[in-house]
Amino acid sequence: xxxxxxxxxxxxxxxxxxxxxxxxxxxxxxxxxxxxxxxxxxxxxxxxxxxxxxxxxxxxxxxxxxxxxxxxxxxxxxxxxxxxxxxxxxxxxxxxxxxxxxxxxxxxxxxxxxxxxxxxxxxxxxxxxxxxxxxxxxxxxxxxxxxxxxxxxxxxxxxxxxxxxxxxxxxxxxxxxxxxxxxxxxxxxxxxxxxxxxxxxxxxxxxxxxxxxxxxxxxxxxxxxxxxxxxxxxxxxxxxxxxxxxxxxxxxxxxxxxxxxxxxxxxxxxxxxxxxxxxxxxxxxxxxxxxxxxxxxxxxxxxxxxxxxxxxxxxxxxxxxxxxxxxxxxxxxxxxxxxxxxxxxxxxxxxxxxxxxxxxxxxxxxxxxxxxxxxxxxxxxxxxxxxxxxxxxxxxxxxxxxxxxxxxxxxxxxxxxxxxxxxxxxxxxxxxx
Length: 433
Hints:
8-stranded mixed β-sheet
């Protein structure tokens, strides 16, 4: 068992403050924001919030990179983290140190004074508190955690911009009985948006885009909707972006996967709407080129204990865990060396849509099901194996990631090994490695 950090020990104490890890309501965080005396007026007119099922992080990091290329300082709040809580907190374009985050969370925890609060609510308040009180940033980007209208990030109130990234099936267990469907997810993510501007990304289906637009019909915000207000065309040099302001020839983003072009186009649409910032074409181009891929997103493991087990195999980690994300990962794997077989190592949480996730991976030779280490809420590997086999894909179980990698390498030393299914699994893998 890995030793807990000071921050993790502190978080463990916060977990005792409320009887539910997630509880969709703004009552507790509004109370804490008030206790913290957060001056939201300092940050509301420079805050972009991002909701959606997939592509939130990609939009956030692309906007971050473009603003940084233009010389602006950025605060960025994302969730969940892959390895460390510090990943969630970027102030003035720099990730917070563990010592400073511990001090920040201790201060916020002390002011909360043991009143009921969820961990995500406390973390969100801590971000807004520091951003409004101490940060000298020019722009604030905050990624919603779950849905939108009752999500902690929405406690900021009316703000500069809301981005709606790709919406798909996920977190169905948080929806009412009889409403566990895409229509209700759209309602949760697009209702009660309090922003001056709304940007809507390309969706996996035109019907989803139509439903989003219909649900936003009575929202008075200025809107930029994919295919209606902006679009793009992929070409040999990257992609040609088009909107009301004209067209831009842009390079492929420095993120793996063809789906990232759609995410980048959405981010560019957001940037081009923010006329109060002096962002030029060169900043957009340089920002797209300099995006830094974060941990666990189609990340190739090039060294460490896992690579030493399978030195001639390609090992990829990806946090994909819902059907739409699985499809994007599958499409990316199809662009790799066709002469090499693909194997998956997969561990997932109990509440995911397992069967629809695996139907995306008909091209793989075999999927090795494992339990997520140090996690009581994962689906057991034996149950996961049955679901995989019901989709027609060969499967077996393994006792650990290391044993699974060893098994695959023993069968095929030139194959591509992809580890995926949960952000919690990838966090454990990267900590191990």
